[in-house]
Specification:
With 161 residues, the chain is α+β, with helices and mostly antiparallel strands. It is 19% helix and 47% strand.
């Protein structure tokens, strides 16, 4: 058992060395918005256009994302670290997180950050159970983008790129 714990710690340390784009995954379920900061997000396919987001099963947004049928992938700009921090922190009032940033409703109702570097609105097509996380895969139904620097996360700190 100790060897597995050491391997987990080593894996986490190694992954912290790899810069990753920062996104807020968002959803609207039963009239309540939920969201979380994530770096385990990427494209899956260009045809059809498809994204995936890996979400820890223990966060409050996990179930609403899976049940809503739609979710937003909001990649943050270099100056949006405060948004990332708010959505990364535990929240007693999850809806209160959305007071940070300018949020709008997408066609599906999914919350989208108006000033995101890129905001993808996704329709959930598959959920894959994978250890501590669920991999949510969605078809892209809408895209908004602007030209700016990205917010990256590396070694426990936010950086611009």
């Amino acid at each position: 058992m100790m060897e597995a714990l050491e391997k987990t710690a080593e894996f986490k340390e190694a992954m912290r060395r790899i810069p990753a784009a920062v996104a807020v995954i968002s959803a609207l379920y039963q009239g309540e918005r939920r969201g979380l900061t994530a770096t385990a997000v990427c494209s899956v396919s260009a045809d059809p256009p498809r994204m995936l987001a890996c979400v820890n099963k223990q966060v409050r947004a996990h179930d609403p994302i899976g049940l809503a049928g739609y979710f937003g992938v909001n990649y943050l700009c270099h100056d949006q670290a405060p948004v990332a921090q708010v959505f990364a922190a535990p929240a007693s009032q999850p809806e209160g997180r959305f007071s940070c940033g300018d949020w709008i409703e997408g066609r599906s109702g999914a919350p989208l950050l108006r000033e995101a570097l890129v905001a993808f609105e996704c329709q959930l097509v598959q959920s894959v159970d994978c250890g501590t996380h669920t991999i949510y895969i969605g078809d892209i139904i809408d895209i908004a983008q602007r030209d700016d620097l990205s917010l990256l996360y590396k070694s426990g700190a936010f950086r611009a790129a």
